[in-house]
Amino acid sequence: MRVIRAEKISQVISDLCLEANLVLRRDVLSALNKAYAQETNRQAKDILAAIVKNARLAKKEKLAICQDTGLPCVFLEIGQEAMVVGDLKKAINKGVEAGYKKGSLRNSIVRDPLARGKSGYQPALIHTDIVPGNKLKITVMPKGFGCENKTQLKMFKPTAKIEEIKKFIVDAVKTAGPDACPPYVVGVGIGGSADYAVFLAKKALLKKFKVQSSKFKVLENDLLKQVNQLNIGPMGLGGKTTALAVNIETYPTHIAGLPVAVNISCHALRSATAVI
Amino acid sequence: MQNLKAGEKVLFSGTIYTARDQAHKRLAEAIKKHQKLPIDLKGAIIYYCGPTKTPKGKIIGSCGPTTSSRMDEFTPALLKAGVRGMIGKGRRAKEVIAAIKKYKAVYFLTYAGCGALLARSVKKAKIAAYKDLDPEAILKLEVNNFPLIVGIDAKGRNIYD
Q1: Could A235 and B50 be called an inter-chain contact, meaning their C-beta atoms sit closer than 8 Å?
Q2: Whether A6 and A136 share a structural domain
């Protein structure tokens, strides 16, 4: 067994919170630059230029890319030969709190979803997976809630046609319309159960855009093409760039069902990863 | 402001107040109960924004717009009470568009998801009300050349139509 101390995890998570919130993911930035080059709508081009400039300024001036520094989602891939010494959950939340405070990020988390009340920096939403090996892979994704509010889930029949599923996904983007900071990144989760499909949709947002090996590349590209024909465009004011990418994650499911979830991200898709 | 047309780009300099979900809820309740309001809404411009904490040495943190439609249920009451400008992102309900027309107000859009860029246009920021709401407190901002796009003009014309 390899021993990993909880304090080390706190430190790494604190750093990841800062990196994710202040430095835009390289694949997202390059997709934005590419969209800028391809866009012919003047207004859309101006907005894309502002978005790219914003990312540059955020990095330079150590300001959050977006004031909605999100619900901190922490994804852990725990090697089965790694042993965490100390309280893992506490260590994660301590790291989140430290990072958010250090970066002057926003305390957007209310302890009681009904009573609301005073907001704080955590708890984070923690997803764990057990993997081979003795390492611990940590990804922090601050998920903005304007786009989170546009999440959709549909339980299809197992005999559903692919066209019906595609329509559901494209319609989810259409429903989000101009409200949730387009150009979007569209996370799609297919399979598992209702809850797991939504998780997969979120996890899909973590995939780097240029993973050519994705076996869903054809479907992803087709969906991206359809979404970009909606003419929603940056800020919803028209243009070719309604989404920067469509990412799909799947999982085996039951013979009686076919869950499909869409979890949209705004253009400020943020995440950072480290391996201990 | 009444002569502005949907789609027009404007650089605004002057005073704006931030207010988002919980501040709207409180303001609308206070209006309903005929209570004294913590800020003067007559002619006010409300910015749907909850900035990050202010980093040391800065005037304000990242401060972009939040989704306007969440304020829709409270907006007609605020317009009736004197609000004449709103800044946010995204669509508005038809009741809001009708109220904008009725009170000759304007709904502006600003660069969504560009909070670091917009922070540069803020020259002063101080808490004006509801300090306990923390990220949702009402701030009084003095802005210079704050970039806006007219979303819905005083005649009810809508950029998204």
Answers
A1: no
A2: yes
